[in-house]
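Reviewer comment 2.1 asked that we show a complete input and output for one of the modelled complexes. We chose the manganese (II) ion case, as it is the one discussed in the main text.
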Amino acid sequence: MNKKIVILPGDGIGKEVTTEGKKVLEKISELFDHRFEFDSAIIGHDAIEATGNPLPDETLSKLKNCDAILFGAVGHPKYDNDPTLKVRPEQGLLKMRKELGLYANLRPIKLFDELLEASSIKPEILKGSDILFFRELTGDVYFGEKGRKDEGKTAYDLMIYQKYEVERIAHKAFQAARTRKKKVTSVDKANVLESSRLWREVVNEVSKQYPDVTLEHQFIDAAAMKLIQNPKSFDVVVTGNLFGDILTDEASQIAGSMGMLASASVGDQVGLYEPIHGSAHDITGKGIANPLASILSAALMLDISFGLKQESEAVIKAVEATLKNGYRTADIADSKTPKDKVLDTSSMGKQVLAQLKIVGSRQIAVGSNYNS
Ligand code: IPM
Ligand code: MN
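Response of the prediction step:
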């Protein structure tokens, strides 16, 4: 298979983790005989420094002309405490989502058994949790009208949804539920918000086309509580942009660490794959970031954008085997982890590559047996 992949490292630890994600893609192409052609581009703070624009035209045109994107993160502390700065790294990310029509953000929350102890939640509550979030990504307060009035003393961000925006993400959620436990939880705040009442109305309407899937509605406040109280009660969750942003950070604790969670953003054209963690400037340059979220994002790319199920499975199994061998980055290590098993970013990447070679070769051997 021939594919063009753009690596978009962005800011902070984005560069460190995508380096490892890219190596995994290279190893897959080698093991399974695919031709992946790589290009790279700038976005976020780096792009502002270089061009004044967080999403330069050159970047956008590369992104529009490739088969998939492996993205790191954007952000820089200099902007966080200075609201007066008009050009901001996050604008690059939001514009990219909008321009590429990436309206569905899939965030699978899957706990590797080896990490049961890494979470602050009790293992018996966590064990067996497997949730797939569909976060709407191009609407809501993120893209509604915003501004200031009263000489700057009043500020507003409009929470707005159109019927078609809810419809298309709801369909994606119901379709996914069909391949899983056939349950969709739609999360909103319909007891207060008009946009949530439209959301609920449309989800109910769409659900009629999926009579085999159970639909339940939860308010965002209750969902936030239940997610921690009983994560196993969820299968597919569909929600708006802001609620999804918050709920999935919370849900990362079910998977042990933010450093473990991959995501896929898809829509009508190209797919974008990224960790849910941010640029993490507190640990940038120290080489200790967990690359597994980026590596698992590469696995999602192989599956969703390229339909390479076996290859994707090989990456997940390699991550599993690495964890089984006891290797941890600092964020998923605990007091019982032996010092020599706590790895830096690139050593963790190397362990996954070594496992990939074993898992991949085994899969290829099994495949050829089937063929003969
Ligand atoms: C995410 C991030 C972004 C968001 C930020 C960096 C704009 O938190 O991808 O979850 O809020 O969507
Ligand atoms: Mn977020």
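The two ends are 22 Å apart (CA to CA). We note this here for comparison with the apo prediction described in Section 3.2.
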